[in-house]
């Protein structure tokens, strides 16, 4: 059982930003995740006694605990991806029991209907309760702005154009609509893109919002979920606008996107002009191979395969981390999982990964 870190790491958001932009080589290994499941945050806080002084009944209890957990783990930034007013309502009727360990379980896991979503006709489009930028509630970001420790920044993710398009229509319905109702597909993509573009201006109000972290899963194991040309027509133009608007505020734009998106990577780098890519899976392409091709152009984040992290023992995890760092550090690379710290990852295995990153820096 992992008992604690032997090497101290203090948050340094300026150094992390130098890594992202490529303006300064990192002096140590830095860490990056899209997010940790709340069950992982709670498990870390419980094991290492990080809830001292944090009242469970406090209005911002989860954020206060998150700060303590991420600072303890050695991250340079705190994420806050959900604030009131940015929701796209949709049913989540499908449920199944969580297979995570009992002390890290969510209870039930839910997923969306891939066949049909809430917006499949023009009538449904008109009646849908679209988020209104003027009603965004940023109180959580305001609290973080005032309470982040020295050395830490924050990020937010409100930019998932393809995901929202596919969830609102249902992936199956979308696939037919690309041929049968392209005008409706365009209208939904444009409405979603306009909302996310407006969110950039909201995020830019906060000085400690150091970068934006878009999340838009566009691929599966062997290719993109819809054709690359359809992504270029409906989705990537909005990411280009969002990236440009983010750059106009002086911030980098990073993109988390799952799956095999090789056919649109040149578009993302050369046209959209993302500053970094996150989400890697060994069966698609090990992160070291991606780094060889793109690490001189953009930042590369994460890459310790989640399946590997779930199934492997300490020695193999530490060896894999060293192999990745040998290939990618120092450079525009930050260590982390290939996707996110899901609640079904054994906590010790995740901590071995983090500890080996600290040791590598020493």
What can you tell me about this protein's structure?
- The protein is α/β, with parallel strands linked by helices.
- Helices cover 44% and strands 9% of the residues.
- The chain has 14 helices and nine strands.
- It has helices at 13-21, 38-47, 61-73, 122-127, 139-147, 161-169, 171-180, 182-203, 228-248, 265-272, 287-294, 306-311, 314-328, 347-361; strands at 77-79, 94-97, 108-111, 153-156, 209-215, 253-256, 276-278, 299-301, 333-334.
- The strands form two sheets. A seven-stranded parallel sheet has the order 1-4-5-6-7-8-9, sandwiched between helices. It has a two-stranded antiparallel sheet with strand order 2-3.
- Helix 9 (228-248) links the parallel strand 5 (209-215) and strand 6.
- Helix 8 (182-203) packs parallel to helix 9.
- It starts with 12 loop residues before the first helix and ends with a helix.
